[in-house]
TrEMBL record:
NCBIfam families: PRK00702.1 (NF001924), rpiA (TIGR00021). Homodimer. It catalyses: aldehydo-D-ribose 5-phosphate = D-ribulose 5-phosphate. Substrate binds at residues 25-28, 80-83, 93-96, 120. This is Ribose-5-phosphate isomerase A. Belongs to the ribose 5-phosphate isomerase family. One of its GO terms (molecular function) is ribose-5-phosphate isomerase activity. The gene is rpiA. Transmembrane segments: none annotated. One of its GO terms (biological process) is pentose-phosphate shunt, non-oxidative branch.
Length: 220
């Protein structure tokens, strides 16, 4: 898909030799990882950390150096996709189930560059059900607390089985409808015992690059 590819490739211009780079997860991040691999082949010297096993495997297959997160202090730039982006750079992420590691990377990045095709832009977050990572223990009780915040929580199923995140947890997709105050909801959800993290990323993005099917990009 052209819009995703050109947004991803524009973001890779933020990457310079000597940097530690965070690799996102998903079909847009896929194009960024491919572009980074091209530049590594041309002599770019970087090390990367990955937000999922899937992205780590792809990076290694393409010859990109990947180091464990435990071995680094700070990330220079992370490049990652989003499921929704509002006008204030608030995001819903986690459609691919990698939201916890993605948020850890973003929180430790000097620059967090979000890449998305035009369909991801929204006025208000909430049409896309908010992914929440929860521990399996007593998950039904955690669902009750999530429901009390005003959503319909559904445990994610993949290929007929409960989806298990890279961290061994469940992902619950929570349909809230329009989210009036994303920052407040992000905190309220994380205050529930059993919740590990949620896919609201508020005040984290330093740049957003939107790709359009006509071949243009817009940086906001
Ligand atoms: C994975 C994510 C992805 O960045 C998000 O789902 C967007 O995916 P895509 O680029 O495939 O549309 O948060 O957990």
């Amino acid at each position: 898909m052209l819009a995703k590819k050109i947004a991803a490739e524009a973001a890779v211009e933020f990457v310079q030799s000597g940097m530690t780079v965070g690799l996102g997860t998903g079909s847009t991040a896929y194009y960024a990882i491919h572009k980074i691999a091209e530049r590594v082949k041309e002599g770019l010297h970087i090390r990367t950390v990955a937000s999922s096993r899937q992205s780590e495997e792809l990076a290694l297959q393409l010859g990109i150096p990947v180091v464990p997160l435990s071995g680094i202090q700070e990330i220079d730039v992370s490049i990652d996709g989003a499921d929704e982006v509002d006008a204030n750079y608030n995001l819903i992420k986690g459609g691919g189930g990698a939201l916890l590691r993605e948020k850890i990377l973003a929180a430790h990045s000097k620059q967090f560059v979000v890449i998305a095709d035009e369909s991801k832009q929204v006025d208000r977050l909430g049409k896309f059900p908010l992914p929440v990572e929860i521990v399996p223990f007593a998950f039904n009780l955690t669902l009750l607390k999530l429901k009390a915040l005003g959503c319909e929580p559904v445990v994610r199923i993949a290929d007929g089985n409960t989806f298990i995140s890279d961290n061994g947890n469940y992902i619950v997709d929570c349909a809230f409808g329009t989210i009036e105050d994303p920052a407040a909801l992000e905190q309220q959800i994380n205050a529930i015992p059993g919740v590990v993290e949620n896919g609201l990323f508020t005040g984290m993005a330093s740049a957003v690059i939107i790709g359009y099917e006509d071949g243009t990009t817009r940086r906001t």
